[in-house]
Write a structure and sequence with these properties.
The protein is mostly helical. The chain is built from 6 helices and 3 strands. A 3-stranded parallel beta sheet has the order 1-2-3, with helices on one face. α1 crosses α6.
Length: 155
């Protein structure tokens, strides 16, 4: 979901979250909606926890520069994390997940890749759809319902 601040991206994500869990703001501890302010390890853990459920990640612009491959966050290619080792050089179990990711931000996925100095690879861009919310009136009505506590009776 791509759009300027205040266009309803997070509100749309809260509406989606309301079908699964508490639709709290991403900044609240325990929120179903994740943020991009994380490490690759942290993200893999959250994706694994959301196995077989949609993953909602808010504000791609907040992605850490330490996340070298931002494309892995949004389009986990094979549903598994990096291979890692224990201190005794034995292999750890790889984290695994099957999920669809919905992400939001003020900039498109392609522009975030470019800002991180990553090439736009065709395969990645075929798996990512930038849905621009400018001029979409539905989100404004939905925002009022979330604000008024109509969705799941929460705020």
């Amino acid at each position: 979901l791509v759009g300027a601040s205040g266009r309803g991206k997070t509100t749309a994500m809260r509406a989606i979250a309301s079908m699964i869990s508490e639709p709290s703001k991403p900044s609240k501890p325990g929120s179903y909606i994740m943020t991009f302010r994380t490490t690759e390890n942290g993200l893999e853990g959250r994706l694994e926890a959301k196995n077989h459920c949609p993953s909602l990640i808010d504000e791609i612009g907040a992605a850490s520069t330490g996340m070298n491959d931002i494309d892995k966050a949004v389009t986990p290619r094979d549903g598994s994390g990096k291979m890692r080792m224990n201190a005794d050089t034995t292999s750890r179990d790889r984290k695994a997940w099957a999920t669809q990711t919905i992400a939001s931000g003020e900039e498109s996925f392609a522009s975030k890749l470019a800002a991180n100095g990553q090439a736009e690879r065709g395969g990645i861009l075929f798996r990512v759809v930038d849905l621009h919310l400018e001029g979409v009136r539905f989100w404004e009505h939905l925002e009022e319902q979330v604000r008024d506590g109509i969705l799941r009776g929460t705020s």
